[in-house]
């Protein structure tokens, strides 16, 4: 006696998230300067609220976070002798560009 078995399967397209979890491949990139002098600020502490992500700006005021999910984030920015800054509802998606932030000295 021979039996025949049919197997049905689905192939997910790139835009279909129903079979695969979202991929954390988004980034936040930015540059921080002094609001009055426009001088680029090195060593500024930048963190993403509610996560363990934290970094410092490089010598040219640049910072970057990689491995993020698409969505909304809040950045906390701190630097000695400058007012702290909170950037809320920062939307990250495939169209996200470099964010330019300026700090005001105290």
Can you describe what's shown?
With 106 residues, the chain is mainly β. The protein has no helices and 7 strands. Strand 2 and strand 3 form a beta hairpin. It is elongated. The termini are far apart. About 9% of the residues have low confidence.
Give a short overview.
Helix content is 0%, strand content 42%.
Going across the major beta sheet, what is the strand order?
A: 3-2-5-6
Residue windows where pLDDT falls under 50 for at least 5 positions: 5-14
Give the DSSP E fraction (strand runs of 2 or more residues): 35-45%
The secondary-structure class comes to mainly beta
Termini separation comes to: 87 Å
Number of strands: 7
Helix and strand succession? EEEEEEE
Quickly count the helices: 0
Biggest sheet statistics: 4 strands, antiparallel
Assembly form of the protein: single chain
Q: Helical residue percent?
A: under 10%
Determine the mean pLDDT: 85
The outline comes out as elongated
Radius of gyration (CA) equals 21 Å
Write the layout of secondary structure elements.
Elements (H helix, E strand, L loop, with lengths): L25 E9 L10 E4 L5 E3 L5 E7 L2 E8 L6 E8 L5 E6 L3
Parallel strand pairs: 1-7
Antiparallel strand pairs: 1-4, 2-3, 2-5, 5-6
């Amino acid at each position: 006696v021979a039996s025949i078995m049919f197997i049905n399967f689905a192939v997910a397209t790139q835009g279909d998230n129903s079979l695969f979890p979202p991929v954390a491949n988004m980034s936040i990139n930015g540059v921080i300067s002094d609001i009055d002098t426009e001088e680029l600020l090195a060593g500024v502490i930048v963190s993403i609220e509610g996560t363990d992500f934290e970094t410092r700006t490089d010598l040219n005021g640049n910072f970057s976070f990689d491995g993020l999910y698409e969505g909304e984030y809040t950045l906390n920015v701190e630097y000695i002798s400058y007012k702290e800054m909170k950037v809320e509802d920062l939307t990250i998606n495939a169209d996200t560009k470099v964010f330019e932030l300026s700090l005001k000295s105290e």
